[in-house]
Amino acid sequence: xxxxxxxxxxxxxxxxxxxxxxxxxxxxxxxxxxxxxxxxxxxxxxxxxxxxxxxxxxxxxxxxxxxxxxxxxxxxxxxxxxxxxxxxxxxxxxxxxxxxxxxxxxxxxxxxxxxxxxxxxxxxxxxxxxxxxxxxxxxxxxxxxxxxxxxxxxxxxxxxxxxxxxxxxxxxxxxxxxxxxxxxxxxxxxxxxxx
Length: 195
Description:
The chain is mainly alpha-helical. It has helices at residues 39-65, 76-86, 92-100, 120-128, 130-139, 146-160, 163-175, 179-193, and strands spanning 2-9, 12-19, 25-27. The protein has one domain (56-193).
């Protein structure tokens, strides 16, 4: 006997068939094709799932770019940015948008605060990972605001997992830096000294 369970996945609902005896989800729709015995249907399912992800990321980015009269916490724009992070959307266009808007802040209610609390773009970048740190490094060639540098430092720290690793990384880059890059790295290290 099988039951149908509805679960939310992004903005769309996904159907999962669950066996009553072993309770393991059996994917329906596109993902069901991954279980086929033959290679061709599995490959089609893979490509369809990949295309669906790309489409959803493009739609989320379009929502995130929309300026709203009231840009509130947990509004459409905020949630779209959060979902870009959850999707680990490492497409160049997404990462550039998030970096361009890194200081965008929402007043959110959370049980634990961190230096990234309320900064949806910075939080999304920390979930995206290494590509975000590479792009941050490229932005250090020019003067940045203190808030941008503070958030850059904490995004890199989140990606690295340990503040000692981040300090080592920044100190190593500082040895070879000059001009704006050197000033920016020094400030970022100062923000990490508080951790």
